[in-house]
């Protein structure tokens, strides 16, 4: 198509609805460690060295005890020196193993959080309407940490105890096959128990993670709205709400702990019961001369090593089950394709700014059965100002959201210069649209960075020019740090009017062909409103401007006024024409609903 270029994305086609949780999270969890294979390989070498040292010293104990019984002082001395050397090697190997596995784990979880955040932020706005902030931050924090432990420290411990288990069993068989068979008689039922308990633990672990996410949701909501909570004296009620959710998480976790406690207890009894059996049967073999005291001692030490390795692996199995539950949520986010593809589609070389709604109907994903817009037909001509007015809930902000392609219409199409927005690159589209909201959102950084948000490459002089045009420069330079002043979370260190003017400066600096103003002067006093209105009029010159307004002063000079009611266009025309007609617009004005 003429005047168009296509920007391709490497992603798959958008998929409607939710993606199923991964079927093989175990394999995917382990795949997270692949980028760290060199570091993990080096750590594994030290792990093997440390494991070998752990398996070597019982042999030295055997020699030492037999030498002591036989009175061999020289052999005894050499055995002690060998043991000291083995422990020194083991200490160095353990230190390097721990360091390398831990660093690898931190790098893995950093990349994982980066990937999850990137996947989350790419989702369509409807995705966020259906989820709470606390739930998503829980995926980034607690769930990612659980997975990190599995693919780093727990992986290290699992490998270490597997080496000790296999090596210990091998040496036990070499020492006394009869005693080893006696000890191994208890292993099969323990293994079957581990599988059964692991499946149950995975289910409970997911429930626990979900319960914790709900508690995080409540905390996030209250902290973000602390001023409202304080204004209504609801601290005690909100504390009780959070307590209910966090204790719900505790109750689920207690179920997990109860199951694991029984399993670990039974396994420990079995493991150390085998030690008792070995002591009894091995003692009889010493009495008959089939074993020396040193050989029995080393056998018992290996039995303890194997028993402790089995116990540790059972504990790690519990953590592994928790990680499976957490990883399902993480991979679900990583695999989900946004309904609105952000990075592919066509771009228009020269935007004239003509926006058209052609038979648009829409319902929000969170309430799909409630239509907000019904068969809307609307045209925004290039270089003109269109004012949207109407009672609360009429659909004014929804129209603006569809222009920004925060959502796609259920029926009909929104067109830019005759091109369906669904066919355009969503990211590129939003670079051509400037917005000033009724309640502007500022980020916890400097004033200059907030103004520069839409144009990161803007110079300091361009930032100041935009601030001057928005009548914000004077109050900014009066602040202790000027343009370097930190605005705090959500701009809390600035007044409402100051935040509004910074937001207007941000839109001015972006210099877009299409402008959306959602009652941009609502937070200003009369004097500031007059100054900013002048700036907005200059901003709206030669642009396609959509103004959502409740004040007569904002709409009376618009090129066209569109009155929405119940999600439909009730009236359209200029101010004077609509005042003559005895319709909704006149009634709104007469009730001073849009009067400044």
State the share of residues found in helices, binned by percent.
Answer: 55-70%
Numbering strands along the chain, what is their spatial order in the largest sheet?
Answer: 8-9-10-5-11-12
Distance between the termini: 46 Å
Largest sheet: 6 strands, mixed
Approximately how much beta-strand content do the residues carry?
5-15%
The overall strand count is: 12
- Output mean pLDDT: 78
Can you tell me the residue ranges where pLDDT is under 50 for at least 5 consecutive residues?
A: 1-24
Helical element count? 21
Structural class: alpha/beta
Overall geometry: elongated
Radius of gyration: 35 Å
Secondary-structure map:
Elements (H helix, E strand, L loop, with lengths): L3 E4 L17 H7 L5 H34 L2 H49 L3 H5 L3 H19 L1 H23 L1 H8 L2 H38 L1 H6 L3 H53 L5 H43 L9 E4 L6 E8 L10 E8 L4 E5 L6 H8 L7 E6 L2 E2 L5 H6 L1 E4 L10 H5 L8 H10 L3 H6 L17 H15 L3 E5 L7 H15 L3 E5 L3 H4 L4 E6 L2 E6 L1 H6 L3 H7 L6
Parallel strand pairs: 5-10, 5-11, 8-9, 9-10
Antiparallel strand pairs: 1-2, 3-4, 3-6, 6-7, 11-12
Helix pairs in contact: 1-11, 2-3, 2-6, 2-11, 3-5, 3-11, 5-6, 5-8, 5-11, 6-7, 6-11, 7-10, 8-10, 8-11, 10-11, 15-17, 17-18
Describe it.
The protein has helices at 25-31, 37-70, 73-121, 125-129, 133-151, 153-175, 177-184, 187-224, 226-231, 235-287, 293-335, 396-403, 426-431, 447-451, 460-469, 473-478, 496-510, 526-540, 552-555, 575-580, 584-590; strands at residues 4-7, 345-348, 355-362, 373-380, 385-389, 411-416, 419-420, 433-436, 514-518, 544-548, 560-565, 568-573. It is an alpha/beta fold and 596 residues long. The radius of gyration is 35 Å and the shape is elongated. The model is unreliable at 1-24 (pLDDT under 50).
């Amino acid at each position: 198509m003429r005047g168009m270029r296509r920007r391709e994305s490497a992603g798959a086609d958008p998929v409607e609805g939710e993606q199923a949780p991964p079927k093989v999270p175990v394999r995917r969890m382990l795949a997270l460690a692949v980028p760290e294979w060199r570091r993990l390989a080096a750590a594994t070498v030290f792990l093997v060295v440390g494991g070998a040292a752990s398996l070597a010293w019982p042999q030295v104990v055997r020699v030492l005890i037999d030498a002591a019984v036989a009175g061999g002082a020289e052999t005894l001395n050499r055995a002690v020196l060998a043991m000291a050397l083995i422990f020194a090697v083991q200490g160095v190997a353990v230190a390097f193993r721990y360091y390398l596995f831990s660093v690898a784990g931190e790098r893995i979880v950093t990349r994982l959080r980066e990937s999850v955040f990137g996947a989350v932020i790419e989702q369509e706005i409807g995705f966020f309407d259906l989820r709470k902030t606390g739930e998503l931050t829980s995926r980034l924090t607690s769930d990612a940490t659980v997975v990190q432990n599995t693919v780093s420290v727990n992986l290290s411990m699992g490998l270490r105890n597997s080496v000790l288990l296999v090596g210990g069993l091998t040496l036990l068989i070499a020492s006394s096959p009869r005693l080893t068979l006696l000890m191994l008689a208890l292993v099969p039922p323990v293994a079957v128990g581990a599988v059964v308990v692991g499946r149950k633990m995975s289910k409970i672990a997911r429930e626990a993670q979900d319960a914790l996410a709900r508690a995080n949701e409540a905390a996030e909501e209250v902290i973000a709205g602390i001023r409202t909570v304080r204004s209504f004296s609801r601290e005690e009620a909100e504390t009780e709400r959070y307590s209910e959710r966090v204790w719900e998480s505790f109750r689920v976790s207690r179920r997990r702990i109860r199951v694991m406690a029984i399993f670990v207890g039974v396994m420990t009894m079995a493991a150390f019961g085998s030690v008792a059996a070995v002591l009894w049967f091995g003692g009889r073999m010493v009495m008959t001369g089939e074993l020396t005291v040193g050989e029995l001692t080393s056998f018992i030490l290996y039995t303890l090593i194997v028993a402790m390795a089995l116990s540790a692996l059972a504990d790690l199995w519990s953590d592994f089950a928790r990680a499976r539950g957490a990883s399902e949520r993480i991979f679900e986010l990583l695999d989900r394709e946004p309904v609105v593809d952000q990075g592919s589609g066509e771009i228009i070389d020269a935007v004239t700014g003509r926006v058209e709604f052609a038979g648009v109907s829409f319902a929000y994903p969170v309430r799909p059965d409630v239509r907000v817009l019904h068969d809307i037909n609307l045209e925004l001509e290039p270089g003109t100002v269109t004012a949207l007015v109407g009672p609360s809930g009429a659909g004014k902000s929804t129209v603006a959201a569809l222009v920004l392609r925060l959502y796609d219409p259920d029926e009909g199409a929104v067109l830019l210069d005759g091109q369906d927005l669904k066919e355009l690159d969503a990211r590129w589209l939003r670079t051509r649209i400037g917005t000033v909201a009724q309640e502007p959102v500022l980020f916890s950084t400097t004033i200059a960075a907030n103004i520069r948000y839409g144009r990161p490459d803007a110079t300091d002089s361009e930032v100041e020019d935009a601030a001057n045009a928005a009548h914000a420069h004077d109050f900014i330079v009066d602040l202790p740090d000027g343009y370097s002043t930190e605005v705090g979370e959500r701009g809390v260190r600035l007044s409402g009017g100051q935040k509004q003017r910074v937001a207007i400066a941000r839109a001015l600096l972006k210099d877009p062909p299409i402008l959306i103003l959602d009652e941009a002067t609502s937070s200003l006093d009369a004097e500031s409103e007059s100054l900013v209105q002048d700036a907005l009029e200059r901003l709206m010159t030669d642009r396609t401007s959509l103004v959502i307004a409740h004040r007569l002063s904002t709409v009376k000079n618009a090129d066209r006024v569109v009155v929405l009611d119940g999600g439909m266009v009730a009236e359209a025309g200029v101010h004077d024409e609509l005042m003559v007609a005895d319709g909704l617009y006149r009634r709104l004005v007469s009730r001073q609903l849009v009067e400044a």
